[in-house]
Write a structure and sequence with these properties.
- This protein is of the alpha/beta class.
- It has a domain at 2-276: 3-Layer(aba) Sandwich (Rossmann fold), CATH 3.40.50.300.
- The chain has helices at 15-28, 60-70, 105-110, 114-120, 123-138, 153-161, 174-194, 217-228, 252-255, 260-273, 280-285, 289-295, 301-317, 322-334, 338-354, 360-373, 380-387, 395-408, 420-423, 427-434, 441-451, 466-478, 482-496, 501-515, 520-530, 540-552, 556-572, 588-602, 610-618; strands at residues 2-8, 32-37, 81-82, 92-96, 142-146, 165-170, 200-208, 236-239, 577-579, 584-586.
- The strands form two sheets. It has an eight-stranded mixed β-sheet with strand order 3-4-2-5-1-6-7-8, with helices on both faces. A two-stranded antiparallel ribbon has the order 9-10.
- The radius of gyration is 33 Å and the shape is elongated.
């Protein structure tokens, strides 16, 4: 249970509206939420239609009066109700209202002497007991408390005794600043004096006019608030929102989910939940890629230290959550804590396996990836082969396993061809997997075997999927099976009933390999299609292919420019790339060598693409 108090020194900032929308949005995400109305002089939570109770529903004032009468804490069950909201997520909203709204409400409220309650009647322990009842009887994920404004005993209870986080809403003017200074100081003093976990403060400038700030009035006031109240993080700003729906007390996250105001409430929700690492969603966000980059930077040493503390807390709160453990391991790896990372990866795999988690292959792959990155490859091949024997592994997992295996050895293990993971794949997925097997001819041969599921290479009517046919055609070109490649690519074009640049280029290369002659007419189609193709800037292989096509139709100048672009891109983006000179995926250095060979061809040298030359040598 995580408790957040919404407080404002003055009214008119939309405090209750913000609380209700944040609470309902939390419930929308599947959370169990308790809304507590401690604004006893001006209660408002149960006036929202979706949160309205039946007449005569007792609440906090009645709870306190009954305690004072009996000198014993009453049962919490009679002072709360479930809001009549039906949420598809399974979340729930419960309300503890201010009290029974009858003619005697004001008298009952006036009868409560807060100073005497705390001084002689164990008021502190009573409220602690009430908080314990929330946790044990209702078991909410979040408790949101609407506090009274100004300097009051009730405000102190809500902001200093009950809260884990206090959301302070304010209009950025001198009146609010003057009033908030003492409140903020008291909250911080309470945290340090009691020795409890520090109370988190979230500052929200609310109901701010959304106008041009030409005189920098808002900017100046926000700067003054930050300095006076020692606000470290930039406050969230909720702009004034003009809508007649406010008169109906509409819950915007339900009825206007795409509105600007709803987006602001969701931002506030994220600000609040970031402190609640028991919340699984918050724990995962705490290890987001953005935080990972910040924590991994030398420029963020303080952030690194805070991240390490947060990771330890996350692990403590979620010791049996494989996804969280795996993310924590990745985080620790980036922080340079290799031993901790390995322990967490191993734990994630163990947890997922014992829980029969269908995603366990994913955690296992990440653990192996980390193992390889540290140079410790013992048993990695065997582990990858075991993963590929799972019949629950998804296609992206098969691809990652293949990528890792290729890092470990140039030739595929013999037993890989019979892996269960391949047998369950549909043709399109199988084509996607085979496209990753281009590092060596040995891997390419395995790809061909998998594509045809062990049948003869001449069996071309095996699939009616044009994507499968095109990928099989590329694989056949790499292996020197040019006639088969032509048949496959022609069939792919027939089924597509369209002319695709990629297929036309590969068809031209297959004919070049089969006849030894450059098919200028087909390459001319490639160049013509290029002008109609979506932008491929940044793709070195694309420029390389177009360079060959331009050369084939006699545009030597254009071919040279394409080569220059391919070289530049390869140097700027130094990753492995598919090379049409070899029909293999090659290193940046090898790709640059292929470009040099192509330039020799353009200059008139008697050279052939390497995949054709290798075939001739083999023959």
């Amino acid at each position: 249970m995580y408790t957040t108090t919404f407080y404002s020194f003055k009214g008119g900032v939309g405090r209750t509206l913000a609380l209700v929308n944040v609470g309902v949005e939390l419930a929308n995400s599947g959370k169990r939420v308790l809304l507590v109305d401690f604004d006893l002089e001006a209660p408002g939570i149960d006036t929202f239609e979706e949160l309205r109770a039946s007449d005569g529903q007792p609440g906090i004032v009645d709870y306190l009066c009954d305690y004072l009468k009996a000198q014993c804490p009453p049962e919490f069950d009679g002072y709360r109700y479930r809001a009549p909201l039906e949420l598809a997520s399974g979340g729930e909203v419960w309300v503890m209202p201010a009290g029974k709204r009858d003619t005697g409400y004001a008298a009952r409220l006036a009868s409560i002497d807060w100073q005497d309650l705390y001084a002689t009647k164990n008021g502190f322990l009573l409220l602690e007991h009430l908080k314990s009842q929330w946790a044990t009887e209702l078991k909410p994920d979040y408790v949101l408390i609407d506090s009274r404004t100004g300097h009051t005993e009730v405000g102190g209870i809500c902001t200093r005794q009950l809260a884990d986080t206090v959301v302070i809403l304010f209009i950025p003017n001198e009146q609010n600043l003057s009033g908030l200074a003492g409140v903020v100081s008291a909250i911080r003093t309470e945290s340090s004096r009691s020795g409890r976990q520090p109370i988190n403060l979230e500052f929200v400038a609310s109901n701010v006019p959304s106008l041009d700030d030409e005189e920098e009035i808002l900017k100046g006031m926000m700067r003054k608030f930050a300095k006076t109240l020692e606000i470290a993080e930039r406050p969230l700003v909720i702009d004034r929102y003009d809508s007649l729906q406010l008169l109906n007390q509409s819950i915007f996250v339900l009825h206007r989910p795409r509105s600007h105001l709803t987006r602001s409430y969701r931002s506030l929700l994220r600000r609040i939940s970031q402190y609640n690492l028991e919340d699984r969603d918050a724990a995962l966000r705490a290890m987001s890629p953005q935080r990972l980059r910040a924590a991994g930077s030398i420029a963020y040493m303080e952030s690194r230290s805070e991240s390490e503390v947060k990771i330890r807390e996350v692990i403590t709160k979620h010791p049996d959550d494989a996804e969280i453990l795996c993310k924590a391991a990745r985080f620790c790896s980036e922080l340079g804590q290799a031993n901790v990372a390995k322990t967490l990866f191993d734990r994630a795999v163990e947890v997922a396996k014992s829980a029969h988690d269908p995603r366990r292959f994913q955690y296992h792959l990440e653990a192996i990836d980390f193992q390889i990155s540290t140079g410790k490859n013992d048993g990695a091949v065997e582990d990858l082969l075991a993963i590929l024997q799972l019949d629950t592994i998804e296609v992206h997992g098969v691809i990652r396993a293949i990528q890792l295996l290729q890092e470990l050895q140039p030739a595929p293990p013999q037993e890989l061809a019979n892996a269960k993971a391949f047998q369950q794949l549909q043709d399109r997925d199988l084509a996607e997997v085979s496209s990753e097997m281009y590092l060596t001819r040995e891997w390419q041969r395995l790809a061909m075997n998998l594509l045809f599921r062990g049948r003869p290479w001449t069996f071309t009517s095996r699939s009616s999927d044009p994507h499968w046919l095109a990928e099989a055609g590329i694989t056949a070109i790499g292996l020197g099976q040019f006639v088969l490649a032509i048949e496959l690519l022609n069939e792919s074009a027939r089924l597509r009933n369209d002319t695709i640049l990629r297929d036309q280029f590969n068809l031209a290369m297959a004919r070049w390999g089969a006849t030894g002659e450059i098919p200028a007419a087909i390459f001319a189609n490639v160049v013509a299609l290029e002008s109609k193709t979506s932008d491929q800037t940044g793709n070195a292989n694309y420029e390389q292919c177009l360079a060959l096509a331009e050369f084939a139709i006699g545009n030597i100048g254009a071919a040279v420019r394409r080569i220059s672009d391919a070289r530049r891109i390869s140097r700027e983006v130094p990753f492995k790339s598919f090379s049409c000179w070899q029909y293999l995926t090659v290193s940046p250095l090898e790709f640059l060598k292929d470009l040099e060979s192509m330039e020799q061809l353009f200059a008139g040298a008697p050279v052939f693409p390497k995949f054709i030359a290798d075939t001739r040598i083999t023959r």
